Amino acid sequence: MEAVPARARAYVACAVLGALACPLPLPTVETPWWAVGLLALVYAGCEQAAARWRFAGTFYPVLLAGAFLLPPPAAVLVPLPGALLSRVDRRQPWLRRIWRAAQLALAVWAAARVHWALGGRDAVVASDFPYALVPAGAAVLAFCLALTVLDGGIRALAERVPVRRAWRGLFLRSLAPIAVHGLAGLMMAVLWRSRYGPVAALLVLLPMCVSWWVFAQYHRERAAHQATIRALVQAVDIKDGYTRGHSERVGQASMMIARELGMDDARVEVLRFAGILHDVGKLGVPTRLLRKDGPLTPEERRVIELHPEYGHEMVRGIGFLGEARAAVLHHHERLDGSGYPYGLMGGQIPEPARVVAVADAFDAMTSTRSYRRARPVAAALEELQRCAGAQFDPRMVTALTRALARDGWHPAVTADEERGVRVVPVSPVSGRSEVG
């Protein structure tokens, strides 16, 4: 969000105005201001702890407890100190803080309004179970829906995510964890109103904090794996300067194909990793062969054709990659059995490998290398369609064609063209680029 579009800033401004209107009319004198202050302090402390220990996500139980305990105009105030004082490492920190404060205020207001409208306050005071679960569940749904609507809007406007994908899966992905946080918030509210008081209510946070910590460790381990992947890709780019940026673009094209095929988000992410890592085995190939300008001898080609096996050996111990490892090994197989390293045919080739094969060839054709100039996207797609059925899976080619027709493609220019290296036209699908 380095350069935030004007329409995104206007969207944030509208959210802020909406949040400022939420405390109106002002809470009455019966509002327990000490409870507002205590909940706001606890939430701010949770946010600071999350930043200090690099936890992932936001701690919603305190916010939802506020929605269950307080009048809507007062509940809106609970997230503000924590959001406005949160640590932000990226650019535009104050814009991000203001946006987060407005987003949480609107979500808490929506949850509190629904909860109070359904008589949730009386149910909490009377510890009326199981009826208390009904307004609490409706409030959780309202909270989740408000976050989803606002998140999708900012993705579409600030991050330029296509509108048809901006909200896809957001609600369902967030509903389960927010529902768990909602149960904890309800327990806090019931204990708070009981004879045990606020101290007992705050004790509910202890097991939640432990589970949060465990979840954060998982994300930290995953981040470490991703850092390892980035380091491997950077090493390949340094060694094979002619294809710098190729891995990232193949990852992007693989993602486009996977989404067009209707794969779920988890599998789309795996396909992205597969595209990024498909050429990691080049680290085991002599640099002089990767940077050779002239034609490869049969012996040299056989050496380079070992890179899928080298790559598979490098990544097979990374458990979360899943079927991406098969794509690293088999992305140079062909449907007619003429590929390598094992000469697999048709359905014997794993689906992720068939996705990456198309993405790899497409980027090779649309990128300028030292030995040939880039082809236009239309020409590259025509070549892929010509080779579909023999070399490439027709489904993958069709999926890429449809995705490009909708979203377009903007390949990066390699550094070699900028240095003025002489280019020689070569067919990327049948020529040397098939090795890369």
TrEMBL record:
Pfam families: HD_5. It comes from the Bacteria. InterPro entries: Cyclic_di-GMP/3'3'-cGAMP_PDE (IPR052020), HD/PDEase_dom (IPR003607), HD_domain (IPR006674), HD_GYP_dom (IPR037522), HDIG_dom (IPR006675). Keywords: Membrane, Transmembrane, Transmembrane helix. CDD domains: HDc. Residues 243-365 form the HD domain. Gene3D superfamilies: Hypothetical protein af1432. The chain crosses the membrane at residues 62-86, 98-118, 130-150, 170-192, 198-216. Residues 221-416 form the HD-GYP domain. NCBIfam families: HDIG. This is Nucleotidyltransferase with HDIG domain. It comes from Streptomyces pseudovenezuelae.
